[in-house]
Amino acid sequence: MKKTFFILCLGLFGFTSCKSGKSCFDAQLKEKYKDTMCTMDCPGVIGCDGKEYCNECIAAQQGIKVK
Predict the structure, then answer these.
(1) Checking phi first, is residue 53 left (phi over 0); if not, alpha (psi -120 to 50) or beta?
(2) Which pTM was predicted?
């Protein structure tokens, strides 16, 4: 159930790569958070790519820093 909710959350918030030409992707950040279990609290944060993520941890798993 938790895994399904996590996937659903990913789908709802549209996690995608950074806008072309303005990459803020951080491979080291993604590597650091790759095995981290993030909470599912979703206050909503804006990544450096201008997209909304559920929380800072989930953005970091995608290699995106938050503003």
Answers:
(1) beta
(2) 0.66
